Amino acid sequence: MNKRPRQIDVARAAGVSPATVSLVINNRTGGNVRITPETRRRVLEAVDRLGYVADPAARRLAGGFNTLLGVFTFQPIFPLRHRDFYYPFLVGIESEAEKQGYDLLLFTSTGGPDRARHVYNHGVNRLRMADGSILLGVAEDRSELERLVREEYPFIHVGRREAKAGPVAYVGADYRSATTEVVRHMLAQGHTRIAYVGATQVLESLTDRRRGYRDAFEQHGLSPDPQLSLHIKTPDSLTPDWLLGLLQQGVTALVVESGALASQFVRCIKTLGKKPPHDISFASLGDPYGDDELYPGITTFHIPRQEMGAAAVRLLAQMLDGPDTADVPQITLPCEFVPGDTVGRLTAATAER
Prior knowledge:
Elements: H1 7-14, H2 18-25, H3 37-50, E1 68-73, H4 87-100, E2 103-107, E3 120-121, E4 124-125, E5 132-136, H5 143-151, E6 155-158, E7 170-173, H6 175-188, E8 194-199, H7 204-219, E9 229-232, H8 240-248, E10 253-256, H9 259-272, E11 281-284, E12 300-302, H10 305-321, E13 330-333, E14 336-338, H11 348-352
Parallel strand pairs: 1-2, 1-5, 5-6, 6-7, 7-13, 8-9, 8-10, 10-11
Antiparallel strand pairs: 3-4, 12-14
Helix pairs in contact: 1-2, 1-3, 4-10, 6-7
């Protein structure tokens, strides 16, 4: 993997002395210090081109590392609530970093007028302040992920990711197998008109769930009705009238691919005065979370979020401590099926509703 650029590398690229580089990047002027605009321009261009970031106050320890692991989140994670989706990941990261002897550096600032979070600030990879980093969340702009892969910066993504530039190191969850287990559970209860309700996003974790939905039908020698694979722009699009329309099409069971959709579904069935599994069976493809009180005993699967965070730290520590290798670590952890009580056996009376 590439070594972190040093001031001497910037000096060579700009054709100046290391002392001059130090003066420019620390903005030290006045008195007898004279830096021409042309010299300053060359130094700053070299900084951007090499991706140089000044080390923290401790500078480098022996061996060229400062024992700092970065944690970069594409979404806000404060204030922390125990039911927040990202909280267990952070618990696992913090606990394992302590075991591995690393400090953590949290990156949260925005990098542009769009107020979105960016790894690169004015073209410079800010993560280089750390020896390596763990990335969390969903990036709307995949170009930064592609650039990190090309630069061979050591990082682990929590969640499976793909990049055209090459393989991405990640710790993922086996959403495909977990979804298959949930849908097979519904099929075993006699449901075949099972609607899949998801987002319009095309994301690896969602793609895995959608594949698992199809796998379950294929394993039962069936084909899912393509008209029942539904994708909506926002959870608010799931309305009581919309749900009634599904029931009128003979849908007897429904799976939603996110906690937000699960919350909205519960609001709808409460508005309609219906109760699972008597009136309709349903399941959430992953731990329900958020402020809304969900139907108790929901059928779902548990995502090993704390274990994923800890595994990401272990993998990153191995990348930093071990010899260079062409193998990019990619591991997938199993999810735990939670049968719950929102999926019931299909009866003639239920099918007629």
